[in-house]
Amino acid sequence: MGKTAFISFVIFTVIAAIISFFNSRKGQNKTTTGFFLGNRSNGFIIIGASLFFSNISANQFIGENESVYINNMSVIGWGLSSVLAMVIVSEFFIPIYLKTGIRTIPDFLEKRYDKDTKTLVSVVFLFSYIVNLLPTVLYGGAVAFGGLLNLSGNLHISYWGSIWILVWVMGLIGSLYTILGGLKTITMSDTVLSAGMLVLMVAIPYFGLRYLGHDDFLTGLSTVLSSKKEHLNAVGSKQDAIPFATLFTGMIIINLYYWGMEQYIVQQVLAGKSLKDSQKGIALAGFAKLLCPLLINVPGLIAVHLYPSLTNTTEVFPLLVKDVLPPILTGLAACMLFGAAITTFNAGLNSSSTLFTLNLYKPFVEKRKNIVLSERSLLRTGKLFQISISLFAMLFAPFIIFSQGGFYEYLQKISAIFSLPIFTIIFLGFFTKKMPPSAAKIGILFFISCYILSQFVFKFNIHYLHCLALIFLLTSFLMLVIGKFFPLEKEYELKMENMVDIKPWKHRYLYNGFLVVLMILVFVLFSKVGIA
Length: 532
Description:
- The structure is a single chain.
- The protein is mostly helical.
- The chain is about 75% helix and about 0% strand.
- The chain has 22 helices and no strands.
- α9 crosses α10 and α11 crosses α19.
- The longest helix is centred in the middle third of the chain and has 54 residues.
C-alpha cells in the first residue's frame, strides 16, 4: 500500500469513527437496554446496515474470492439462499421475538420451556463465541488486512509478528468501540461503513474489468464472459464444494438459524424501534446480500484471468485491490476490510456480554444473595466481562496460525454441532403448544450424538449438509413423539410483553417477493442457462 493509499485509509477510518460516536452519544449507556440494545431505538436503515456489516467478515473477502478463483461461483449459494431465509425470519420469527419482549434468544427458551433450557443454551452460545467466534474473526481479519498492507515486508518482521500486531490493533479498537459505545455506536459505525461498501461494489468490478481490458472496460467484460466460463457457474454439481441440492436441505436450515437465532445477528433486529422497522431493515440487508457478489465473488472471476498461475490463492482479493484501484480507493478498500474485520468481533463481544450479564450473572447473584442488582452494577459487570474475553481472544487468536489444519477446523466443527440443535428446539417451540422441556433437552443431546457419530465415527457417502437435514428431521420426530406421550399439562401461550410497536410492515409481501425473484434471477444468470 502506497503513501497516498495509507493516508486515505487513515482519513476514512477516522471519519467513520467520529461520525459513529457523535451520532450515538445521547445517554444511551446508562441502562442495560441502552448499552446492549441501543434503547430499542434503531430505524430500518441502521438495522439493515448493521445486519449486513455484522454478517460480512474479512474471511468472506478472502475465502469466497479464493473459492471462485479455484473452483466456480457455486460458493454464492450461501449468500444468495440466505435471502430466502431472511424473508422467512422477517415474517415468522421476528414478530414472535418482539411480541414477547425478549432481549436474548435464550430468553425465549425460558418463556417457552424453562430456566434450565435457557441456561444451557446461554452457556453453549458463550462457549461458541469466546472460544471460536472472537479469536477466529480477529485472526482472519489479520490475515486479510496483512495481505493488503504487506506489514511483515514493510516493517521487516516475521509474518507471525505481523499477525500479533494486527490482531491486537483490531482487538483493541473493536473493544473500545463496544465497551465505550455499546450497541448504538457499533450499529452507527456499520451504517457509515456500509455506505463505503456500496462505493466499492461499483469501483472494484469497474476498475478490475478495465485493468483486465487494458483500460477498456468492455474488453475486460468480454474476456470474463467468453473464456474460462466454467468459473461462471453457480449451480454446483455433486463434485463441487456446494452442490446445488444442498441449498434445499442443510443450507436453508443453517441460514434460518443464523439469521433468525444467532444472538449477535438477532440482537441487531431486537434493537429496532418497531416491528415495521425491523422487517424493513431485514429487507434492506437482503437486498445488500444480493449485491454482495460484486465484492466477494466477482473479483475472484477477474483474478482468474489476471493471475492464471497464482501460488498463494489467499492473495486473490488484496492483490487485485492493490493492482486495479486508484490509491484513494485502495485506502477506502483497506478501511472497509478493516471494518469488516472488527465488526463481527464487535457484535460477538456485545452479544457475549449480554448473554453473560443478563442470563447467567444476574439471575445467579440475585438468587444467591437475595438482592436486586442495579443497572449500574450490571453495566460494570458487562464491561469487565467484555475486557476479559477481549484479552483472551487477542492472546489466543495468533496461535491459530499453528493449527489451521487441526484445532481450527475442529473448533469450526464443534460450533456446527451446537447451532443446529438450538435451531431445532427453538423452531419446534414456535409451532407446538404442548412440547415439554424434557423434549428440548433430549433433542439437544440426541442431535449432538447423531452428528458426532455421522461425522467423526462412521463414514457415510453423503454431503454433510444433507446429513444435517436428516438429523434435524429425526430429532424433530423424536421431540414430537415425546410431546405426544408426555405433553405439558397446560398449553404454552405466547404472552404479549412487547416493548415496541408490533404492527407489521404493510408492504412486506411486495418487497420480499421482489427479493426472492431477484435471488432466482441471479442463480439463472450464473448458470448454463445464463452466462455460464
